Amino acid sequence: MYQLIDKFIESAKEMDDDIFPFMANKKEFVEGKNSVYYSGPYWDDSEARELIHSIMKGKWLSSGEKVNKFEREFSRMFKFDHSVMVNSGSSANLVMIAALKKYFDWQDGDEIIVCTCGFPTTIAPVVQAGLKPVFVDIEWEDLNWNLDQVAESITDRTVAVFSSPVLGNPYDVDRLVEICNTNNIKLIADNCDSLGSKWKGNYLTEKAVAASCSFYPAHHICTIEGGMVSSNIKEIVDLARSYAWWGRGCYCVGQQNLLSNGVCGKRFSNWLENDTVVDHKYVFGVRGYNLKPLDLQGSVGSVQLLKFDEIHSLRRSNKERIQKALESIDGVRVVNERPDAETSWFGVPIVCEDNNLKRSLVAYLEENKIQTRNYFAGNILLHPGYRDLGKASDYPNANQVLDKVFFLGCSPTINEKMLTYIEKVIGNYVSN
Fold first, then answer.
1. Sequence-distant (≥ 6) Cβ neighbours of residue 173 within 8 angstroms
2. pLDDT tens, residue by residue, 314-341
3. Is residue 202 part of a domain?
4. Active-site pick, 219, 220, 280, 312
5. Has residue 122 been placed in a domain?
């Protein structure tokens, strides 16, 4: 079957020069004609082949053996005992927080400390779970949260801190772990932007009770969409899976089945309260959702993991190259990693001395087809859906982010010709 798939892919590429525009085998970059996107899937024929094979084989279309395999491979690579794949990084945060609340018996109104600045998916799940987000400001030097404020914000209702390093760049992990241990609270990691980032040689997530990850096309690896919840505590991952699978507690997949006909041998061993025997596939222990991924996403994930070391290395080298070019602009500062960190950069964080410089530079880059992004939401409390959670004015550093901060991509899809072009455009900006 793979030979047929290869023939199809080759014929498709011959018919259309634009096939696979984001992939490693994409057409030649032309200055002034093609855009330099800040990110995109780092795919080639291998991912396309697996997608087509998964569809044509058709044994599992929804979550099945491929997803199960990817979960195990992901856990091994990133030093977890257990992982569950879901349909997005946002869903990963949603079911992770719900699972942690139930496992640790957190009560409505218990507090989780979050950063004011970033993306709403570290905040919305806290509220949706009936917990209270407690906000802290950022440090202007590295844009990560202020750890002094984290320590000062702990009360007798605090149960956890929910970390999300800025564009993958680690904060002082040792200090945060010390704060958590001293106060007997949990460290939860939103790892969606920082897959592969390390602190003193260890993944950022190794000290966390649970961690989430995203496989959206802009992120480190891409499964079209997708996310992961990981933990060394099996019960937490089991709960997260249950919340993602309607609330059921059975996930018989592939070799986990006990009977030759593919049916679990314990399928009819459950009783409800009235002594009615019930198929355990339809026993619902929590009020859950349907957040399952597709098996074809799992198949792509396994291929992407094989490329992860290359992806990590290219993101680091691309960031260094772009940073060097930006240093020629007066009033511009690129955020560096800490000495103990090895950052798997999501993007190149750029701080401008004032909003006029930011507007000018962003406009020039965009006019020259170099894509930029704001640092996400800036202060989340400025946004209509979150204003009721706190006063934006209490967080002065976060309030500057939208005026002075943006980022460029450093994705592995940005090749040598694109890097040379970025350097040229930045040089022209300086000379003009």
1. 199, 200, 204, 207, 340
2. 999 999 999 999 999 999 999 999 999 9
3. yes
4. 219
5. yes
